Amino acid sequence: MTMLSAFITDCSGLQLTRDEWRFLQDARPAGFILFQRNCGSPDQVKALVSSYKDAVGSDDLLVLVDQEGGRVQRLRPPHWRQLPPAAAFGALYRQDPARGLSAASAASELVASELASLGINMNCAPVLDLPVEGAHAIISDRAYGRDVASVAALGRAVAEGLMRGGVLPVIKHIPGHGRATRDTHEALAVVDAGLDVLEALDFEVFRQLADMPAAMTAHVVYAAIDSIRPVSTSPTAIERIVRQSIGFDGLLMCDDIGMKALDGSLVDRVEAVVEAGCDLVLHCNGSLADRIEVADAAPLLEGDAERRFQAAFARITGPQTFDATAAIAALQEALAAHA
Fold it and tell me: Are 175 and 160 in contact (CB under 8 A)?
């Protein structure tokens, strides 16, 4: 069988156009990411996911969505539940750690069961970033808290709940986006904190979840590590911090290469993130011409990247039986805490 290509792509609407089908058939991307524009109803989403797999000619593919809750939720009412932001579980945790962890775990199992029923097998969550005073609001309530212990505990509860529900988690934004003073969708962010502070706080959260199957990089410059390149395009940051210091050997994807934090052409960006050590290139919200450009520049999925892809994929299991009534109650409790 023809090998997959080491990138994740999107599509324009509720179903594949004829040109998008041909593109997927030719390019064979290893992953497909859904946005709100792609999610009209459960039956429609299932049909779209099936079309992607049919076009590529494989079932062993990643189907991703950002279903964090709060501001970042692609599947929305009326067909899907309204989800609280991560901060709501943090609020419960501060009142009663056991209750907060139980609610986060149960709610994530419920989310995973709904995603798995649609054919979605990867959720770009949990966010493990630690916001600090003065940081840009792009993270804010997407974070579980501001200390290592609570964020690591809640992040693990969510990640493991997703996996019990048959969906792979993606820890993000490794090695930490919480200190960024700019929204990397719009501009490059530079963090000047010392390495000792970063190691003890921002990086430590990810270190405690280094056993997770997948992670997404931050388009953030850490001056103490590489004063020029953001983590996503920095071989020094990925090898020295992500792989060695944090100890993460799972599947590593970059954040969207279309974001304005990166410079250069799409080809330049693909080459930079691959050379830096990312296993998969994530490209979202481009035209079909953009997708073709990315596909032409992306390498085949092979070597360590393929090993990590297969290792992550092997951790996908069927949804386990869980108490849906209790999970719904936990979700309602978190929504109430946020309100």
Answer: no
Dist. CA 311–CA 180, nearest whole Å: 31
Question: Does residue 129 have an active-site annotation?
Answer: no
Q: Of the residues 255, 279, 283, 338, which is catalytic?
A: 255
The residue annotated as part of the active site, out of 96, 185, 296, 323, is 185
Active site residue 255: yes
pTM above 0.90, yes or no: yes
DSSP calls for 251-302 = EEEPSPTTSTTS-S-HHHHHHHHHHHT-SBEE--S--HHHHHHHHHHSPBS-
| Rounded (10°) CA dihedral 228, 276, 216, 34 | 110
Residue 339 has pLDDT above 80, yes or no: no
Q: How far is CA 214 from CA 85, 136, 137, 163, 251, in A?
A: 21, 25, 25, 12, 4
What are the backbone angles phi and psi of residue 29, rounded to the nearest 5°? -65, 145
pLDDT per residue as tens digits for the range 161-198: 999 999 999 999 999 999 998 888 988 989 999 999 99
* 69, containing H or E segment: strand 67-69
pLDDT band at 318 (very low <50, low <70, confident <90, very high): confident
